[in-house]
Amino acid sequence: MRHLLTTKGLDSDTAITLLDVAEDMADVADREIRKLPTLRGKTVVNLFFEDSTRTRISFEAAAKRLSADVINFSAKGSSVSKGESLKDTAQTLAAIGADGVVIRHPASGAPQVLADSGWIDAGIINAGDGTHEHPTQALLDAFTIRRRLHGKASRGKDLDGVTVTIVGDILHSRVARSNVWLLAGLGADVTLVAPPTLVPADTSGWPARVEFDLDAAVDTQPDVVMMLRIQAERMHGSFFPNSREYSRRWGLDDARFARLGTDSIVMHPGPMNRGLEISSMAADSQQSTVREQVANGVSVRMAALYLLLSGDREGTK
Amino acid sequence: MTTAQRPPTPSLPTRDLPTHTVPTNYLIGGAALPDGTRADILLADGRIDEIGTGISAAGATRIDADGLVALPGLVDLHTHLREPGYEQSETVLTGSQAAARGGFTSVFAMANTSPVQDTAGVVEQVLALGEAAGYVTVQPIGAVTVGLKGQSLAELGAMAASRARVRVFSDDGFCVSDPLLMRRALEYVKAFGGVVAQHAQEPRLTEGAQMNEGALSGELGLAGWPAVAEESIIARDVLLAEHVGSRLHICHVSTAGSVDVIRWAKARGIDVTAEVTPHHLLLTEDLIAGYDARYKVNPPLRRREDTEALRAGLADGTIDIVATDHAPHPVEAKDCEWDAAANGMVGLESALSVVHASVVANGLLDWADVARVLSQTPARIGRIEGQGHSLAAGAPAELTLYDPAVNRVFGTDDLSGKGVNSPYLGVTLPGRVVSTFHRGYPTVLNGQLQDASLIADAGRESPRG
Ligand SMILES: [Zn+2]
């Protein structure tokens, strides 16, 4: 694997390999010494053009557990008009000798531009680009689902027949996009539930059904319900009347949570708006994987860094 | 003709130029006219002196045009020359050179300069820069509103009455979205035979828009520019034009729905004309999948169905003309992430080849149609003199010789302006502009752009109008 830019186009064998490596990495986290020497001497740069402490520290922990040297580069607000361009930043990182670049950027496609540009030769991991993709989030979600379903017997398994309902702002969600491609690619049956204003104009090519009625979706007793965060700026764009109405129609409140099967899985990529898209009862329940998702995030990111940066990268093109 | 506003021109270099001035008599032998007949064309004193077979002229420079198509000099109703204000992107001189290279003898210079072309002084400055360059007739377009701000009318009458004789008014880049202001502009320009050229883009429906709204925008996570944002403004404006009995021109039509609306308006007798760009005839949105900012343009590249509707609309006359929307940008404006990149493509040098590839090669248009959509009709819409005439004795010597038989990989060597933001670099395109004659003298000869000082001299010494 040269770069990890999207889950679209990631074949299921590669995805399963990555999830299996993440299982190995998770085993390391259970050991007394949680560090592997694998990436000793390699430099990983966390290049964040957008604030996200959660994602950055997850990648930082992952890289450090693999003994890589980590540089955090916060370039928030950079663009051609204000401050340094992506190109100049990339060339600076190339000069430093970065082997891997983990990039978070508000512009969709920025990681791909970086990978295709020739400005830098490093392996690129997309840590969230605009409203496009967030592949490591989807991989950690798939990992979390697989572990809940199969426990220690997870290795080698796909998600064949698992029903997953993703609820919320699909239009602006990179988490939703990456999950649709990845989970469906692993065999899951994906349904999206959202207000019509927050569904992209044409999803006919997506391997997912689109519904507007959360109650109907809950009553199908899906194996997984994944709630997406509603961003504050959507409140003012006339996407829906107000947060009360959103919560009433599209929130996982106590009543809807109670109607889910007791072995259903409740997920949220965080940070949560408690009482808006998810109730505390749902978020803090045994069915919730919110804290596991954070822990699994480190394992999955270790796996991604390992597959991109260990050994002879040219040979794995 | 006053020369008071002309900036100092470089003095003629003394190195080994063959003559002090360009010869003005040319005998073009054996060209194919747009109607397919073969003819010799004698150019003398800035006019087509004679056209027919077996012409001989002592003293005229003979140019073999065997196998070449002779077209009336091309007229671009939509060019961004960037001067004054954005000379790092293009100047009137370099944009004129790009135009000549593409077979153009006249360009209409859009108003979004800095300062904006919203006063008589600025449009006269642009006119004078064009005259000094001498490659093409540079006809300034006037802004509709002061500073392109969409709030109050610019001095349309003063620009019309100026030496630049402005007849086309446009806030291009911005839509005149206020319906009352649009109504007033349409009405007001009737006083001097003007036309409002609308950049049809409903601003609220396109806030932050990055590409055509559809399946691909959803997948790529790029904010959508919906077709309805163009179509709804066109629908409104044709009805306004009907109501006040005015002439309306629609810039760079890009959607199938827009073609339908314009077809309906024309059937209703509304005085509307429309243009399509070469890139909207040839390129589709799927090129954006790799986020390569060279494909970022406004209006955005659309679907295959739109491209086909635009071609059909051009063929059946719903769309009147092809105009380039030549939009040069410095390299750094495209060498970046998609959202940060500037909109626009250079298009003058490639226009004729792209029209050839998209609508001539498949038989939708013949060369007479090309002469109509790239020369005669744009000149008529823009009410410009000395341009867009059929090739006939007595007409101004504005013409282009085009070799339709060659194929070439388009490259930066084919570009003569400052911008290299062409979507066609590395693409095989048919045909090649061989020579361009403007006011009787060659601006491009055998594919070679002629020397700037020579052209400036020729422009000064040849008769105008
Ligand atoms: Zn425009």
Q: Could you explain the architecture of this structure?
A:
- The complex is a heterodimer of chains A (317) and B (465).
- Chain A has helices at residues 12-29, 53-65, 86-96, 110-117, 135-150, 174-185, 214-219, 243-250, 254-259, 280-283, 290-309, and strands spanning 43-48, 69-74, 100-105, 123-129, 163-167, 189-193, 209-211, 224-227, 265-267.
- Chain A folds into two domains: 12-134 and 294-309, Rossmann fold (3-Layer(aba) Sandwich); 137-289, Aspartate/ornithine carbamoyltransferase (Rossmann fold).
- In chain A, helix 2 links the parallel strand 1 and strand 2 (69-74).
- In chain A, helix 1 crosses helix 11 and helix 2 (53-65) crosses helix 11 (290-309).
- The model of chain A is unreliable at 313-317 (pLDDT under 50).
- Chain A has 317 residues and is α/β, with parallel strands linked by helices.
- Chain A is globular and about 55 Å long.
- A five-stranded parallel beta sheet of chain A has the order 7-6-5-8-9. Chain A has a four-stranded parallel beta sheet with strand order 2-1-3-4, sandwiched between helices.
- With 465 residues, chain B is α/β, with parallel strands linked by helices.
- Chain B is 28% helix and 20% strand.
- Chain B has helices at 92-101, 120-133, 156-161, 179-188, 215-220, 227-244, 256-267, 278-282, 304-315, 351-360, 367-381, 452-461; strands at 26-32, 38-44, 47-52, 61-64, 69-72, 74-79, 104-109, 137-140, 168-169, 195-198, 211-212, 224-225, 248-250, 272-276, 321-322, 399-409, 428-438, 441-445, 448-449.
- In chain B, the strands form five sheets. In chain B, strands 5-16-17-18-19 form a five-stranded antiparallel beta sheet.
- In chain B, helix 4 packs across helix 6 (227-244) and helix 7 packs parallel to helix 9 (304-315).
- The longest helix of chain B has 18 residues, at 227-244.
- Chain B is globular, with a radius of gyration of 21 Å.
- Zinc ion binds next to loops of chain B.
